[in-house]
Specification:
3 helices, mainly alpha
């Protein structure tokens, strides 16, 4: 509970720094989300429609997930 209280006290003492950090975090998260969509949707479509490349794409994505 001490960590939560300390966090809240920091937010109250430094609202501008907190909002800046929150803004950066949200933007980075959205960039990563949209990059994943741009990469994953075409790969998913290709994997589902291609018997030749489908298994290779699925294996490649699984390997990347492990790493």
């Amino acid at each position: 509970m001490g960590t939560l209280k300390g966090s809240w006290e920091y937010i109250q003492a430094n609202p501008d720094r907190f909002l800046d950090a929150l803004s950066v975090h949200v933007r980075l998260s959205l960039y990563a989300f949209f990059a994943a969509i741009v990469i994953s949707i075409p790969l998913g479509i290709l994997a589902s429609r291609s018997q030749r490349f489908g298994p290779a794409i699925v294996a490649g994505v699984a390997a990347v997930r492990v790493v």
